[in-house]
Design a protein that fits this description.
329 residues, alpha/beta, 6-stranded parallel sheet, globular, ADH-like_C
Length: 329
């Protein structure tokens, strides 16, 4: 197959609002050892893309400066030392960056097959949230069947994934969200109790149930001491973002007296090997559940690649429920 020398890409011209995103032309990247080149059909949009655009989340030095952490399409070239994947395969993949483009390079070990029954559009929306939720709630947070699990931002891309995965693995799921409509969406996905945080105190709700065994939080700020109160003895808090800021005063006596664990992680800076391990776990334990129709990406809206700015504006309005996707081809 003859590949073009250049491709369309959306770049961040300077730190700022959605209008700093501009369609441009870039060289088609070449796959190195262990890597594949994917011709993208769709690319998922994630909040970290908007943070990168705003100048608040710099890409690692080794990654593309182009935004885009996930996508789905066809493998069109493979580098040396790649096995188990071939030109012509349809895949969805976690990307080190560069997903807002016609072509992208990523480690072969970070690609997974498009699950049976899913379109490329749906598959493009799986990697970033499934890698993040699986590695934080299950591998790091140790969530098991029967536990009380609270996820904040229940209607977000991360939240809609976390609710479904926790429910399908037998946890009792509680979710917070900012409107009755978003709460209804959380309940429909498997939350036994959706809490409108503008009207109700999630601490009271969880304390009334005996406390949360695990909390997955993206809000931070004043939620940190509230989360500590909402945890059951021996409970775990896994922090994956700080929408309300990372600095807060916290009385750690509670952590000691009630034997709590506070931890967290970000996906992007982790090693290729760590991400490959998450991919393998997902392939074995989660992909069959998607193929069986028990877990699905929740789709909000689609924008053409050239309208990435409108996609970012929708995400930052927080009007969406689930995933926003860019149509690339
Ligand atoms: N650690 C990692 O590796 C990792 C990976 C991916 C994503 N993330 C983080 O996870 C979060 C969700 O990502 P996403 O792509 O799923 O984004 P998203 O769909 O835009 O979700 C963000 C959600 O947070 C809620 N929210 C926004 N500001 C809030 C505030 N001040 N207080 C309470 N809730 C607020 C909004 O829902 P309401 O309308 O209900 O408030 C919104 O739906 C982001 O912060 C992202 O940076 C972390």
């Amino acid at each position: 197959m003859t590949l073009p020398a250049t491709m369309r890409a959306v770049e961040i011209t300077e730190a700022g609002g959605p209008d700093v995103l501009r369609t441009t032309e870039r060289p088609v990247p070449q796959p190195g050892a262990g890597e594949i080149l994917i011709r993208l059909a769709y690319a998922g949009v994630n909040r970290p893309d908007a943070l990168q655009r705003a100048g608040l989340y710099a890409p690692p030095s080794w990654a593309s400066d182009l935004p885009g952490l996930e996508g789905a399409g066809e493998v069109v070239a493979i580098g040396p030392d790649v096995s188990g994947i071939a030109v012509g395969d349809q895949v969805c993949a976690l990307l080190p960056g560069g997903g807002y483009a016609d072509y992208v390079v990523t480690p072969a070990a970070h690609a997974l097959p498009v699950p049976e029954g899913l379109s490329l559009k749906e598959a493009a929306c799986l990697p970033e949230t499934f890698f993040t939720v699986w590695s934080n709630a299950f591998m790091r947070g140790g969530l098991v069947s029967g536990e009380r699990f609270l996820v904040h931002g229940g209607s977000s891309g991360i939240g809609t994934t976390a609710i479904q995965l926790a429910a399908v693995f037998g946890a009792r799921v509680f979710a917070t969200a900012g409107s009755p409509e978003k709460c209804a969406a959380c309940a429909a996905l498997g939350a036994e109790r959706a809490i409108n945080y503008r009207e109700e105190d999630f601490v009271e709700v969880l304390r009334g149930e005996g406390g949360a065994n695990l909390i997955l939080d993206m809000v931070g700020g004043d939620y940190l001491p509230k989360n500590v109160k909402a945890l059951a003895d021996e409970g775990r808090l896994v922090q994956i973002a700080f929408l309300k800021g990372p600095k807060v005063e916290l009385n750690f006596a509670q952590v000691m007296m009630r034997r709590l664990t506070i931890t967290g992680s970000t996906l992007r800076p982790q090693s290729d090997l760590a991400k490959a391990r998450i991919a393998e776990d997902l392939r074995q334990k989660v992909w069959p559940l998607i193929a069986a129709g028990r877990v699905r990406p929740v789709m909000d809206s689609e924008f053409p690649l050239e309208d990435a700015a409108a996609a970012h504006a929708r995400m930052e309005s927080s009007a969406h429920v689930g995933k926003i996707v860019l149509k690339v081809a």
